[in-house]
Design brief:
Layout: H1 2-8, E1 42-46, E2 50-57, H2 66-82, E3 85-88, H3 94-103, H4 105-108, H5 121-133, H6 146-161, H7 169-179, E4 183-186, H8 190-205, H9 209-222, H10 226-238, H11 242-250, H12 255-276, E5 280-287, H13 297-303, E6 307-310
Parallel strand pairs: 2-5, 3-4, 3-5
Antiparallel strand pairs: 1-2, 1-6
Helix pairs in contact: 1-9, 5-9, 6-9
Length: 311
């Protein structure tokens, strides 16, 4: 079941979706492990000419969480003002992302069968009950394959309980950067985003019907737990309680998607080092997940000799 909790919560901290528990070794406290009393997930990496300020972002939040995030926004303001460039994981070009979604629409839709012909009557019964709770109608979704229908349910449940990208820290800093007319750059290209998105769709689409139904059923069950788990994760994230986050996340992750996080961190390293060879200050906003566990972003930079400090 932990696999599906991670699926449902996947946007909060850029969680990897995993099935096997991963054993991790704590990072060197001198270089990359925040002091336990530190209240904020806010760090800097320094070279003789440059400083990179890092904010561990929560990608989706509720609109009413202004008070909870205010201390972090206040803490980071001077560094944000100092920075000439703001760096994000990926573009917030929703038109482009909609185009990506359209490109895989053929994979999501079964032109020959409806969902009633793919999954059991018991699953249909649970599905109808869940859809009613989400104000959705199966008649409008019946051509979706089980894995695609599962994704629709996850997005609908997030929206129902109020966790939305538009209120996340990324969007808040992106808006501030635009208003301040700062240079904005991204750690990943549009092509890299699309390739990862397509690979996920291909992997899910290749699953046999019985496995897709199993994932759909388990997701239907796990949807009921999303709000409690999300509240726990967000509370730990805003308090920068990495020990709690590490315990929660690594209970939910499998090796394949855990490797995706590590691979992304290593791919970003080259660009981050390029920034550190320049002059001035950069303000980097990436998911808090990328600061947890071995081979996290700070760990990699420390291994390459850069000084790491938490505020």
């Amino acid at each position: 079941m932990r696999h599906h909790h991670a699926l449902v919560l996947g946007g909060l901290l850029a969680l990897a979706t995993l099935t096997a528990v991963v054993t991790v070794t704590p990072l060197s406290r001198a270089h990359t492990q925040p002091a336990q009393s530190a209240p904020h997930c806010f760090w800097k990496a320094s070279s003789p000419t440059t400083v990179l300020y890092f904010v561990g972002s929560v990608h989706v939040l509720k609109q009413e969480m202004e008070q909870e995030i205010a201390p972090l926004l206040e803490m980071t303001l001077p560094s944000f003002q100092q920075a000439h460039t703001v760096v994000f994981e990926m573009s917030f070009n929703w038109t482009q992302q909609d185009a990506y979604q359209n490109l895989i629409a053929d994979k999501m839709i079964d032109t020959d069968r409806t969902i009633h012909e793919i999954v059991s009557a018991d699953t249909i019964a649970v599905l109808n009950q869940t859809l009613a709770e989400l104000s959705l109608e199966l008649a409008k979704l019946q051509r979706l394959k089980p894995w695609a229908l599962r994704d629709v349910l996850i997005q609908a449940q997030r929206k129902k309980i109020g966790w939305q990208h538009q209120y996340g820290l990324d969007q808040r800093f992106f808006k501030k950067a635009k208003e301040a007319q700062k240079e904005i750059v991204y750690l990943e290209t549009a092509q890299e985003q699309w390739e990862r998105f397509e690979a996920k769709a291909n992997r899910l689409d290749a699953m046999p019907d019985d496995k897709q139904e199993k994932y759909l059923r388990e997701t239907l069950i796990s949807l009921k737990d999303i709000e409690h788990i999300a509240e726990t994760l967000i509370k730990a994230a805003l308090a920068c309680d990495l020990s709690v986050l590490e315990k929660l996340l690594f209970q939910m992750e499998d090796q394949e998607l855990y490797d995706i996080v590590r691979r992304r961190n290593r791919q970003w390293l080259g660009k981050l080092e390029t920034f550190l060879q320049q002059e001035g200050a950069f303000f980097v906003v990436v998911g808090l997940r990328h600061f947890i566990g071995p081979e996290n972003v700070l760990h990699l930079l420390a291994e390459h000799g850069y000084a790491i400090e938490q505020f």
